[in-house]
Specification:
The protein has 469 residues and is an alpha/beta fold. Helices cover 36% and strands 14% of the residues.
């Protein structure tokens, strides 16, 4: 697609070592032509540069990263690598616990004491040998789909620093887009992986709920997912394999094993595809509509059978607010009143909205969610995949919650292609499918619950198709 090449990629000025993917790095480590320590030095220097320009990090850990890289180098030399990501630079969002790091959730109203143990997802990556180079920015408590906070300021989009990279995993998306690390851990409670990945032209996957264990539990409950953010589906697959699995610290995980993540051949021919182009709130930008429909036509030309659909369920926006804003209210209740003045005013407004839901309202919303989730399972039994735009709008001014002049009041009103899939818990990824106004546009691919590997297979196939291979 010609529109994919209208602007210079933010990784174009990165050193060669910072542009390599997992497969290239581990092949070089295995051959002894490259050392994890060399790569770590390059990633750390790139992170410092990216931080100066775009404010994507809350911490850059030179000492810890170089120590981990040295250990990885020794393992590769001994022929005893831990996994496919051993020695590969990674970042962690300032919302997951990391032993020895202060995790502030993007807030000045949290304890600065270092964490005493890793979250399960972090522990899985550490056990696989990933090299943690730093911690990435988030809005306060990850409450919105853009990235700015009173504690750490505004994170900016490397395609255009005047624009937002989205959120809440905005720092991770910027690090990914610019080559400040290869693997980036994000969280997604309403689009917080997919929105910033789409806004920065990178790849992000919200896995099936429970594939990646979480501890401590999120205040936003079972709409909150943990997943990989990378520059390719293949790298996301390698990262997810390290993060995933049963962990007895997470009671909310489904019992038993999920289907394999191993790659399988994928062909669009004969695939039955549901096309979702109308968000439950807001309107779809015409430029995004054109680019996404162009991608859909390519998928149809490859043999897929595409049928327009509307999502089942009534008032998904109110249903999501009943889950999300009550989570904000519960988080605020844990903060002493004399610290409320330090908080993001928007977060306080969200918490106030959440406090207006009664217990009966919340239970009714849970029941409505159960009906919606079952209907989505049935939809994805009738279709192989659901495709849609990832966002309804292009990246807008940094530091704002909604596009200026849009008439919208909350981020959920322009993120209507993402939060419904948190309610229903299917795996969903975003893949860059084109450009408009020099800014990236994302195509969302949703699969049946448990079908994370299938979604990744489809994303790789779509990437080859749209890349002209």
């Amino acid at each position: 697609m010609n529109s994919r090449r209208q602007s210079i990629s933010p990784i174009s000025d990165a050193p060669d070592l910072c542009r390599m993917d997992v497969a290239a790095l581990t092949a070089a480590f295995r051959a002894g032509t490259l050392s994890p320590v060399e790569v770590a030095h390059a990633a750390l220097a790139r992170a410092e540069d990216v931080q100066r320009r775009f404010n994507a990090f809350t911490r850059i850990d030179h000492a810890g990263a170089l120590e981990a890289a040295g250990a990885a180098e020794a393992r590769w030399r001994a022929g005893a690598a831990l996994s496919a990501i051993d020695g590969v630079p990674a970042t962690l969002k300032d919302i997951v616990h990391v032993e020895g790091w202060s995790v502030r959730y993007g807030s000045r109203a949290t304890d600065a004491a270092p964490m005493t143990r890793d979250a399960p997802s972090v522990a899985g990556m550490r056990a696989a040998g990933a090299v943690f180079i730093g911690q990435t920015t988030t809005p306060e408590f990850g409450w919105k789909a853009v990235t700015d906070s009173p504690a750490f300021g505004i994170t900016r989009n490397p395609w255009n620093p005047e624009r937002t990279p989205g959120g809440s995993s905005g720092g991770a998306a910027v690090a990914s887009a610019t080559g400040a690390g290869v693997l980036h851990l994000g969280t997604d409670g309403g689009g917080s992986i997919r929105v910033p990945a789409a806004f920065t032209g990178t790849f992000g996957l919200k896995p099936t709920f429970g594939r990646v264990p979480a501890d401590p539990p999120s205040v936003f409950g079972t709409v909150a997912h943990i997943g990989p953010m990378t520059r390719s589906p293949a790298d996301a697959r390698a990262m997810l394999s390290a993060m995933a699995g049963r962990n007895l610290r997470d009671w909310s995980q489904p019992w038993g094993e999920m289907p394999s993540l191993d790659p399988r051949p994928f062909d669009w021919k004969g695939r039955k595809i549901a096309l979702w182009m109308t968000p439950p709130t807001g309107s779809l930008d015409s430029a995004i509509e054109r680019v996404v429909l162009d991608s859909i036509r390519q998928i149809e030309a490859a043999g897929a059978i595409v049928e327009p659909v509307r999502l089942p369920g009534d008032d998904l926006h109110e249903m999501f607010h009943a889950h999300w804003m009550t989570g904000a209210a519960s988080r605020l209740a844990q903060i002493p009143a004399d610290m409320h003045g330090d908080l993001d005013p928007g977060f306080l407004e969200a918490a106030a909205e959440g406090s207006r839901f009664s217990l009966v309202d919340y239970i009714l919303a849970q029941q409505a969610r159960a009906r919606f989730g079952a209907a989505m399972d049935r939809l994805l039994a009738d279709y192989d995949l659901l495709l849609s735009p990832t966002t309804a709008c292009l990246p807008f001014a940094a530091g704002r919650e909604v596009p200026e002049g849009s008439g919208l009041s909350r981020w959920t009103e322009w993120a209507g292609f993402s939060y419904p899939i948190n309610l229903s818990q299917q795996p969903a990824c975003t893949l860059s499918c084109g450009m408009a106004e020099g800014l990236p546009i994302g195509l969302q691919i949703v699969g049946p619950r448990g079908g994370d590997g299938f979604v990744l297979d489809a994303a790789e196939a779509a990437g080859r198709l749209m890349g002209g291979e």
